[in-house]
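Schema walk-through. Below, the input block comes first and the output block second. Nothing else is stored per chain. Lengths vary across the set, and this one has 298 residues.
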Amino acid sequence: MNLNNAQLKAFAAVADSHNFERAATTLHITQSAISQRVKLLEDRLGKLLIIRGQPLSLTLAGERLLSFYKQQQLLECELLDAIGENEGSDFTTLALALNADSLTAWFFDALQNLMENTNLLLDLRVCDQNLTHHYLRKGEVLGCISAVANTMQGCRTIALGAMTYRAVASPVYFQRYFQQGVDAHTVQQVPAVDFDQLDQLQNEYLLNEFNIANGNYPKHRVPSVDAYMSLISRGLAWGMLPDMLIESQLSNQELLELSPGVVVTVPLYWHCSLIKSFTLKRVELAVIKYCQNRLSPL
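--- output ---
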């Protein structure tokens, strides 16, 4: 069975944007044309691909088709480059998923040399490290960095190491709230900061260090790494930050540990499709090499 490329492209645009209207804008065609192409593709395959709801979601058949399309596009681009059809001017786009702290702390350092010397474009999905693998399972990306160790069907998994986090606050914050020290009572009365509703690092620290399990304490919610760090640096909250981002601030005592020497570790794993893509392999090798030198061993 031959699949219509225009229909596949329309389906992938809807799957990526989770919206027919945005997909139409991306492809510079009408929304009715997008809908018609997706419907024709579903009719041809005899399978429902997209569940029309709020938000849109893919069926299992849709997830598998999206993964196939992403792989096909990557391999086609690599083939054209290999036979000289791209003439060194076209770029190869690779969709990946990772957590915000890895993105901020080390990901671009790991890929700096590769991106300087190849025509690689990144299409990144950023979410909690416990959820990034869902993007890979759904076919939206071809690789991800995840805290989940289990290998998915059609993929391989490589342990990268662990990021270590410490509970920190500014000297101003310590002067305001912790003059008598940090204890189980005080730490539940003062403001902390969460990244989002899925952020469990503060809860894990409190459970491990003070046997506090209820998570009932005042907290800001700031879904930006830079803004999260700024809130802590300004003396407005305490929070968990990775060692890779705060080495100099700890050394200069611009930040102080609530519990010196106590860390919470987050294991990280590289998951990727088994397709024979040299672009994906180059990214994998760059990530592994960097993490072996910079992350804590698992």
